[in-house]
């Protein structure tokens, strides 16, 4: 197992509700709530006083997977 020193840092990109709104093209706060309440939406990594936060990579991957399904259904 690699040794971690105090100088090692990990940069995490996080999305709150506002960033999710922007990432999805300016959707409403209600729509953000609907999406983040879905059972297939990524789990938040923290629930802070100002709201939940998600890993940006997981949210982006979830969106990409859903878009692929939508495109596939439109072609049929």
Query: What's the gyration radius in Å?
Result: 16 Å
Distance between the termini: 48 Å
Mean of residue pLDDT values: 88
Strand content: 5-15%
Provide an overview of this structure.
The chain has helices at 17-23, 29-36, 56-75; strands at residues 14-15, 46-48, 51-55. By secondary structure, it is α+β, with helices and mostly antiparallel strands. A three-stranded antiparallel β-sheet has the order 1-3-2. The protein is globular. The mean pLDDT is 88.
Quick synopsis:
By secondary structure, the protein is of the alpha+beta class. The protein is built from three helices and three strands, in the order βααββα.
Kindly list the characteristics that best describe this protein.
76 residues, alpha+beta, three-stranded antiparallel β-sheet, 3 helices
Helix/strand layout:
Layout lengths: L13 E2 L1 H7 L5 H8 L9 E3 L2 E5 H20 L1
Antiparallel strand pairs: 1-3, 2-3
């Amino acid at each position: 197992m690699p040794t971690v020193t105090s100088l090692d840092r990990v940069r995490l990109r996080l999305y709150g509700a506002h960033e999710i709104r922007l990432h999805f093209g300016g959707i409403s706060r209600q729509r953000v709530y609907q999406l983040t309440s879905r059972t297939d939406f990524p789990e938040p990594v923290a629930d802070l006083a100002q709201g939940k936060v998600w890993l940006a990579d997981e949210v982006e991957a979830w969106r990409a997977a859903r878009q692929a399904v939508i495109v596939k259904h439109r072609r049929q």
